[in-house]
Amino acid sequence: MTVSAPLLVPGLKTLAPDYSAILCDVWGVLHNGVTAFAAAHDALSRYRAETGGKVVLITNAPRPAQEIRPQLARLGVPETAYDDIVTSGDVTRELLSAQTGKTVLHIGPDRDLPIYEGLGLTFGEDASADVISCTGLVDDETETPDDYRARLQELVDRSVPMICANPDIVVERGDKLIWCAGALARLHEDLGGEVSILGKPHAPIYDAAVNRLVQLGVEPLDRSRVLCIGDGLPTDIRGAVSQDLDVFFVTAGIHAADFGPVDEPEEGRIRSRLAEEGLTVRAAIPRLSW
Questions:
Q1: Which residues are bridge partners to 59 per DSSP?
Q2: Cβ neighbours around 175 below 10 Å, total
Q3: What angle do CA 162, 167, 173 make, to 5 degrees?
Q4: pLDDT, tens digit, for every residue of 151-181?
Q5: Which of 172, 177, 182 is nearest to 34 (CA)?
Q6: pTM for the model
Q7: Longest dimension (CA), the chain
Q8: Which domains, from first to last, does the chain contain?
Q9: Do strands 176-179 and 170-173 pair parallel, antiparallel, or not at all (unpaired)?
Q10: Residues of the chain by 3-state class (helix, strand, coil), percent to 5
């Protein structure tokens, strides 16, 4: 991968001719959990219409893709912006399906329960659990990971492993940062527990997304012509780089405070942070637009 000069570009149109497909993050790029970003979904819609390229949304949401479509519609993201969706929930279901016969402890809100539909799992409480399935904090508006420390320590002491369905540490919800399942997975690991994660930045979700592109007709697939768009350095950016995929970095997401004025980020700060993280990107933009 190469870094363009300058790093900051005016819009996706600058890069679009070089790519036949896009893997685009959702939360932080297309919406903030409260409202959709019109310029962002317009950019993807225009990319599809003007280049014929395919767009697969790739998200660490701990729910199946069919649950995400109506959520996007409610927020204002039209289906013209994408061809398909691959979620962390989708790839995690395969691992969860192998837990048949074990007692599963679900940690997370009830809205994430669709991830278990049709898997035939047996659920129980902490004392009887053989494995933890973590989709998030039960009440992510008021709780913090530290509220789970004692509980997780007891589970770690019994060698109960965790399957994390959402690797994100935090996401934006409106103007707030909300803790996600990845924060509990990190704590579980810090306490000495075993954790399995399949979403971004790990390979399984990218393999699933690339396979989906092939199913959509992007074949033969040339990975040098697949562009990943995201705002999270530890998930979106690191994951794409680890898969040798080019990256378009949206800076006004969860790292917005790190680069100066949100809508006029300082390129030097972006380059320094990327260097510190050992990451390279094709280009950057404050907010996704055409």
A1: 87
A2: 7
A3: 125
A4: 999 999 999 999 999 999 988 788 788 899 9
A5: 172
A6: 0.87
A7: 57
A8: 12-89+201-285 (3.40.50.1000), 93-197 (3.40.50.1000)
A9: antiparallel
A10: 40, 20, 40
